[in-house]
C-alpha cells in the first residue's frame, strides 16, 4: 500500500492547519487506497487566534499537540520524517502553513522556514518523490526551491510573491491542479479561493489522485 | 435550498467534536445540495485534553470558540437556534458530545444535558423535523427522548446505557444507519466502531442523504 506523509501546522484556519483541507486530504488518501501518517513540527504556534472573533488570545499552544486533534492522536514529530519511508508528502493549507511552518504571513518573501519543514521538502525532492501543497503552502515550497511552477489560485499579491521568489505561477480555479515536472510538485488553490467545502474536497481529491499516479 | 443545523461540541475527539465526523457531515450536506449552519453552546469545555498524550491540560477553553475552528468562524451560539428556520439538525460525535453537550462520559445515564441542547432537540421534534446523531451522540438523544430507536454500533456497555434510558438499540457496522420513524431520528456509529476516515465519510453521507429524503 502506498504511504503518504501529511504535514500539519496546528488545528484551525487562522493559526494552524485549515481543518477541512487537512481532513479532506486524509479522506482522499484513504479513498484512493493509500495510507497516511500525520506529522507536525514540535514548536510553539506563532500565536493563538480566537476563531469566533478573529482576535489574538493570550495563550500558548504547541503545533504538534494541536495538530494531534486532527490526527486523533496518531501523529509524529516532523523531525522524525524520513523521505525514504514514504511515497509522497503533502502540506495542507491554512494560515498555520504561513505562520508556523514558515513566517510568510508576517515577513513576506523574507520569511524563515522551519528547519524540519525545509529538510522534509529537500529530502523528498532528493528522492524524486512527489510533494503536494494546498492553498498558501505553495509559497513555502517556492521559498525553499525557488524555480518551481505552482498555483495559489488568483490572488495577485501572493502570485507576485511566488514570482519574486523565483517561481512561476499558473492561475487556477476550484479543484484544478498544477504539476511541476522538474521537482514533482502538485499544487491546488483550495481556500485561497472563496470556496465551498465540496470544492475543497475536489481539490484535495485531484491533487492526491495525481500524486498517486506519479508514485 | 434545504438548510441543516450542525451542532458542534468543541474541536477534537477527546474533549470536543470529532473533527473528521464534523467535517465530513458538512461535506455530505454540501455534496447533496443543501446548506449548513454550525452552532455550539457558549459554555466552558468540561476539560482540555492533550491529544498527543491523552492527558488533561491545566487550561480552560470555550466550546463555541473552539468549535469556530471547524466552522471557519461562521458559527452561532446554540441558544439562538430556532427549529422553524431549519429543515433538520445534526449532532456529530466525539467525546465533546458526551462531556460538553451532556455529561454522559462522566455520569453515565444519570448525566445532565446542556439546556440549549435539550431545547434544540425538543423544539426540532415538536416541528417533526429530522435529527441526525453520529457516534456517541445517540445516547444523548436517548437521555432526552427516552423511547427512541438508535444505533451506537456494537459497544455493549453503551448499548446497555441506551436501553436503561428507555431506548431500543440496533447493532450496525460501518456506514449503516438506523431510522426512528416516531421521532425522525437518524443515527450511525462512525468512530464508535474502529473505523477508517473513508468509513466515517460513508456514515455521514448515508445519514445526510436519508435526512434530506425525509425533509
Verbal overview:
- With 215 residues, the first copy, chain A, is an alpha/beta fold.
- Chain A has a single domain, classed as Class I glutamine amidotransferase (GATase) domain (Rossmann fold), CATH 3.40.50.
- Helix content of chain A is 37%, strand content 17%.
- The first copy, chain A, is built from 8 helices and 11 strands.
- Chain A has helices at 19-31, 63-70, 95-101, 104-107, 115-126, 137-145, 156-164, 197-214, and strands at 3-7, 35-40, 48-49, 56-57, 75-77, 88-91, 131-134, 149-150, 168-169, 178-180, 185-188.
- In chain A, a hairpin with a 6-residue loop joins strand 3 and strand 4 (56-57).
- In chain A, helix 1 packs across helix 8.
- Chains A and B meet through helix 1, helix 2 and helix 8 of A and helix 1, helix 2 and helix 8 of B.
Any low-confidence stretches of chain A, pLDDT <50, length ≥5?
none
CATH fold field value of chain A: Rossmann fold
Strand content bin of chain A = 15-25%
Write the element-wise H/E pattern of chain A from the N-terminal end onward: EHEEEHEEHHHEHEHEEEH
Helix content of chain A: 25-40%
Indicate the overall shape of chain A: globular
The structural class of chain A is alpha/beta
Largest interface between protein chains, with number of residues from each side: A-B, 34 and 33 residues
Distance between the termini of chain A: 11 Å
Number of strands of chain A: 11
How do you describe this structure in short?
Chain A is of the alpha/beta class and 215 residues long. Chain A has eight helices and eleven strands.
